[in-house]
Amino acid sequence: MASQLLLLAFLAITCSVAFASDPSSLQDFCVAESTSSVPVNGHVCKDPKLVEANDFFLSGLHLAGNTSNPAGSKVTPANVAQIPGLNTFGISLVRIDYAPGGINAPHTHPRATEILTVVEGSLEVGFVTSNPENRLISKVLQKGDVFVFPVGLAHFQHNVGKGNAVAIAALSSQNPGAITLANAVFGSKPDISADVLAKAFQVDKNIVFDFQAKF
Length: 215
Ligand SMILES: *[C@@H]1O[C@H](CO)[C@@H](O)[C@H](O)[C@H]1NC(C)=O
Prior knowledge:
One of its GO terms (cellular component) is apoplast. Keywords: Apoplast, Disulfide bond, Glycoprotein, Manganese, Metal-binding, Secreted, Signal. May play a role in plant defense. Probably has no oxalate oxidase activity even if the active site is conserved. InterPro entries: Cupin_1, Germin, Germin_Mn-BS, RmlC-like_jellyroll, RmlC_Cupin_sf. Belongs to the germin family. By secondary structure, the chain is an alpha+beta fold. The chain folds into two domains: 48-177, Jelly Rolls, CATH 2.60.120; 178-215, no CATH class. The chain contains four helices and ten strands; from the N terminus they run H-E-E-E-E-E-E-E-E-E-E-H-H-H. The strands form two sheets. Strands 1-2-9-4-7 form a five-stranded antiparallel β-sheet, with no helix packed on it. A hairpin with a 7-residue loop joins strand 5 (123-128) and strand 6. The longest helix is centred in the N-terminal third of the chain and has 17 residues, at 2-18. The N and C termini lie far apart (60 Å). The model is unreliable at 10-18 (pLDDT under 50). Residues 66, 68 line the site of 2-acetamido-2-deoxy-beta-D-glucopyranose (NAG). The site of 2-acetamido-2-deoxy-beta-D-glucopyranose has 2 residues, from loops.
C-alpha cells in the first residue's frame, strides 16, 4: 500500500516535469542578443550589465491592427522578436483584431498552449482534438470570457458579433510559431504536387490549382 502511494507520488512528480514547455531559466534573465551569430536553442544572453528597461518593454498594444485583408483579422505579436527580455521565459502575448465576420484561420502553434480572453465583441472559437480523432470542441465567447487552445492542436476564431472584436492571448513559449493550415498545404514553396493534394482532398486537380493560386 505504502509502496503504491510512493509510486503514485513519483509518477505525479515526473509527469508534471514532462509537461514543461520552454526550458527554465538558470539566471535572473537572458535578454536576447540578436546580433550574435552563435546558433543556440533560443538566443544567447546580452551582458547583464548592459541590460536596460527597454529590453523588457513594448508599447502600442492598445492600437487596433489593420483588418483590411481577406481574413478580416490581424495578429499583433509581443514575443521574443519584439521583447528580447522574454528569451528563455516560455511566455508571450498577442493582440488579435477582427472585423465583423473576420476569422483567424485554422492554425496550430507547434510550441505553445494558448489562453485567450475576449476584451471586445464576441467570438466563435474552437479546436480539433487528435485523440479521439478530429473532434471539434467549440464555443461562442463574449467579452471577458476565457478559452484555452492546447499545444499543437488546430484552432480558429471567428467574429460572430455585429461590431469589431478584440482578443488578448498568452502563449506558453517565447516563440510559439504559427502554422496556418491552408497556407502550409496550398501555399508551400515550392508547391506540394497537385497529384498528392488531389488524392489527399479527394478533388479534381483543377481545384487544387485554384487553391494554390490563392495561397
Ligand atoms: C490597411 O491595409 C490596407 C490593405 O493593405 C491598406 O490599403 C490601408 O491603407 C491600411 N490602412 C491603414 C490605416 O493603415
